[in-house]
Amino acid sequence: MSQSRRKFIKLSGLTTLGVSGLGFSLLSCSGDDEIVVDDNNSFNISGVSIPATLDVVKGSETTLTGKGFNVEDTIEFVSSTTLTSFSGIVTKVTESTFTFNIPSEFVSGSYKINILRDSNSLLLGNILINVVANTNIPDVEGKNIKGVVYCNGKGISNVTVSDGYEVTTTDAEGRYYLSSLKTTGFVFISVPGNYEVSNVGSAPQFFKRVSNSTESVEQKDFSLLEVNNENHVVLSLADWHLANRNNDLEQFTTKVLPDINETVEKYTATGTKVYALTLGDLTWEYYWESNNFGLNDYVPYMNKINAPVFNLIGNHDNDPFKTSDWDAEARYKEIIGPTYYSFNLGKVHYVVLDSIEYINSGATETSMGSRNYNERLTNDQLEWLKKDLATITDKNTPIVLAMHTPLYKLPTLDSQGNDVNKIDLANGSTLINILSDFSEVHVLSGHTHINSTVTEQPNIIDHNTAAICATWWWTGKNGYANNHVCKDGSPGGYGIWKMNGKDIKWVYKGIGYEEDYQFRTYDVNSIHITAAKYAPNSTDALLADYAGEYSSPSSNNEVLINVWKYDSQWTIEVTENNQLLPVSRVKEKDPLHIISYEAFRLNAGATPTSSFVTGKTPHLFKVTASAPDSTLEIKVTDRFGNVYTETMERPKALTVDMR
Hints:
mainly beta
């Protein structure tokens, strides 16, 4: 088709679409947007209005607004994401509309719409077209929620649908029926593998809202988009704590967000689907009113992530003016969506749970309560989880279960340096039993702002993930350490989960670092934490309370290695002059965090917040060298055989900008 020289004219009502991984995010353009036509404007087209989205039925006719169209004009649809195109013929025109047929082979997607006439073509605009099914389905006695789950006009069978209590699956024609008390206010699907749903911003729309009337029958249909996410990547993003304090919004926008989007781009460039999964504490309820930053304000920042984002509620996302768990999560449900649900990506089944039972003693409508809570799963969730997992007949299906608080406590160490583990979740034993039929389960959590990996159960690995806000944005606050470090010395960061069918690999990525940055070394001879060096406005007596043994100099030639995502399948080797040195696992404080948080708070005349201070971590390892200035070769190998190395030249100073 020939394209003549162009000039610009204006058409009203145009809308463009941006593809966002799990579907399409709509970006409205103003009526002043200009599009091109041939130099002579031979089409004489005007008044065209292209909607952002259009639902169509294959083989049917569709009418749009526009003047100057002719019967027998060709309407061409060119896919924005593939090389395919479809054509329909204008069958009827009026003074202000044109009607054309939808080809029987048409598929849902994002398209450029052209009109073809003789040897000329004209771009009319861009549109997302959903091929819908015949959704006229009858009522069934006793069922008050019904609907069709479809893709490209065809019902999809065996899709799990739930109201948060009852669970059913679609029939051969994609139809479902539920008898619901409509308690949660939602009906949602467990998006099947190799399908996606549309997004609002970056949030996948796998749920629909329902009324609280059990007498009325409501129809809620779900449209799917067929994709290939057999191989995919999930970014686990714990503890955002956005609160408009500590210049957190600036830190997120200039440091964290670019790092996340660079990771998204890295994997999407290889043709891999990328998704994000938050792990709770998106906001900080204590500052919702005083800093005028709540869940509504979180959403625009989430939408800046260039991938679909599945959300999860944390304790700080509950309403501090409500005294019951149910009432406290109402605002989250109103703004974000369900507090528990499931979805599938490729061959992996994901479950999102709410592990916070919010108590909030003493709260009133005008004053915050104590914001206390229990770390437990409600019985309703556990019963729903049993029903959800019962739909997974292949017990070798990998399960990724996400919740805010960890299943296990931070391990202690026995005399041989082995983990001693204890369940943290109040009804964690019940959860473990529910998951016992599955051969591979990964539990993802946040909450602690540290990294910890527990392999206590033969089929379950508990992955506690450090925070993207590190130490509540303190160490990167203006005038502070200008770094991003968590309480255990881990860099602030996030998990990268790489799924290839049923094969799962993972890595923790520090923000501002490459994926191969997996440990940090300390020359203990060079560690002497004093007020004069690290907090000149404070005193040695105050700083020593936090620095502990590091407040005294050492000459024992010891070296510490902090391996943040260590588990029992990792190995640490250290050589000095080609001789292996004995490596022992210890539970000690990370010195970098002490000088990055506690020292700066004391220097500012403040008392470090007890829950933010450096804690003893079990992913530290100690070796003793023969001399204070020998060079050590450090080799760390993870459970997947990836090798990370450092040639450690000593002395090595302790500084806030050390690697």
